[in-house]
Amino acid sequence: MPRLTVPELRAARHSGRVTEGGKKRPERVPDGDGLYLQITPEGAKSWLFRFSFAGKAREMGLGSVALTDDRRGLTLANARREVARLALAVREGRDPIHERDARRAEAIAAVEAEVKEAKQKGRTFRDVAEIVLTKVERERTNAKHQYQWRQSLESYAFPLIGDMPVADVTVADVLRVLTPIWESKTETAQRLRGRIERVLTVAAAMGLRPRDQNPAVWRGNLKEILPAPSRVATVQHQPALDMAEVPAFLKALRAREGVAALSLEFCILTAARSGEVRGARWAEMNLADEVWEVPADRMKARKPHRVPLTAAALAVLKEVEPLRQTATPEALVFPGSREGKALSDMTLAAVIKRMNGKSDPPAWRDKAGNAVVPHGFRAAFKQWALVQGWADHLSEMALAHQDANKVRAAYAREDLLAERRPMMEAWARFCTASAGQAVVVPLRTAKG
């Protein structure tokens, strides 16, 4: 039986088959030695170990699928190693499910012991916040989000309530933290409120506070005291170039050299987020079908996203291909200066900064005179799509935005790739109208 490969793992999809009862059930793809890839009708992928113990067929979930080692879950190689370890336990007469449950029981007992100790010591808000921050650092792959969590608590919460016993924090204490910045830094204050709420929720789960008394909750609590954020917040949009100036910008960008400039060009042509482009790997590029398949774990909405690759986008890939650091499918498309490391968000912003030079106001700016940023080109794409009359749902899908209407989103199962392709081709033609024909040019080897 042929074994799975990483590209097959990435491309695996649920067939959509329906059972006699009219339901879709998870499908399983064997890899060998009892290891199965399980795919739910919603597209979630996980690992399953099937074995026989004491004459009975058993199944043991191993966790979600990860395509690279820097993601949560198990890669194909690690899943095979885990199955080899579990199979050895079975051969030695040990039940791996029983052993797993025993380890979990030990972990629960350890947590309960920690909670008991915490009650005796009188844990502070800062103590519990550090537990939450550690969990956030494990959960979130985005270093920027990790930094923002810690920075907001250290800047605003810790100085006022950090050393208080977490059991003693009241609504008045939360207001002491939030009120000074609620109107001047509304977005920051909103996020900080949510973070304080989570810290106090964890404290309640540890038995350090009553479960039904969280003074940082918004509904029925702070909502009755603080002004609504919509009334006091000034919406801060990312500085974006007017769509009419995009072709001229792309022409100037193509005069720049380096991976960062190519990465920014690919961002513009695909209307993707810079993080999605900077983390792109060659295994995601289905060049035969001219599609970029972004896995769920690298998308903001945690859902897989397909991007039609236009002729101009393919030309960028062909130009950057000689810079490939390794022959493995997981090699970065736009590698950073250190092998195996992606470009930073600041690297792309620095390209625009150099293009602006020392001109005041900046040469490439929004209507308010602010220097544009990479993310702003998504707004330029949206502006263009609306002006050109493309259906709103197509441009929203291209931007991988979540539908605010949860019912409508639940039924929007198709990604309309075929319908989006002509729109993206038209966008690429518009962008390259003044930038010259999208052809392969000599490799830009200097820094961008």
Order of strands side by side in the largest beta sheet? 1-2-3-4
Put simply, the count of helices is 17
Helix-and-strand structural type: alpha+beta
* Contiguous runs where pLDDT drops below 50 for at least 5 residues: 436-448
Computed Rg: 26 Å
**Strand residue percentage:** 5-15%
Q: Which homologous superfamily in CATH is the superfamily of the largest domain?
A: Intergrase catalytic core
Shape field: globular
Structure commentary:
- The protein has 448 residues and is α+β, with helices and mostly antiparallel strands.
- The chain has three domains: 6-99, 2-Layer Sandwich (Double Stranded RNA Binding Domain), CATH 3.30.160; 121-232, Tyrosine recombinase, N-terminal domain (DNA polymerase, domain 1), CATH 1.10.150.130; 243-431, hpI Integrase, Chain A.
- Helices cover 46% and strands 9% of the residues.
- A four-stranded antiparallel sheet has the order 1-2-3-4, covered by helices on one side. It has a three-stranded antiparallel sheet with strand order 5-6-7.
- α6 packs antiparallel against α7.
- The radius of gyration is 26 Å and the shape is globular.
- The protein starts with 5 loop residues before the first helix and ends in a 17-residue tail after the last helix.
- 30% of the residues are buried.
- The model is unreliable at 436-448 (pLDDT under 50).
Can you tag this structure with a few keywords?
alpha+beta, Double Stranded RNA Binding Domain, DNA polymerase, domain 1, hpI Integrase, Chain A, 3 domains, four-stranded antiparallel beta sheet, three-stranded antiparallel beta sheet, 17 helices, 7 strands
